[in-house]
Amino acid sequence: MTPDHVREPRTGEAGFTIVEAICAIIILMFGLAAIANLYVVATQSNLAASQSTAAVNMASQQMENFKSMPFENIAAGGNLDADVGTCGNLGSFCRYDAIPGVGEIRTRWMVSQLDPQTWYMRVRSESTALLKERTRVELTSFRACSAVAAGCPQLGP
Description:
Distance between the termini: 123 Å
Mean pLDDT: 87
Shape: rod-shaped
Oligomer: single chain
Order of helices and strands: HEEEEHE
């Protein structure tokens, strides 16, 4: 029987070697790097999704404005690629909205008259941030007025 203060010699399988510990650390580092990359991608995707949702809401709101506007008050003009007029003012064809927690959304629209009774409207909304191409939304619609008795313009003589 050996005294308590004397230890028995170790065998060759009694623990990790430094090489095994380094290999385990390296494998763990690769796993953590992959998970960190997933967090970056998820954060960027969530940001793009929230900006896209805001862009859809702003474009839909502009289309609803066209629907509620009297037919004779609709004016032709606008450009989807450049601001026309001072954005946000009466008679302009663009608007910038600061959405809390999302950022700034730019909305531009273009209105064309196809004939005296039909307007063609296009609305484009997108984020002004770095992800603007991923957040762009375009809506198109027609607005027609055919009830001449109710004040709609006639189509010919």
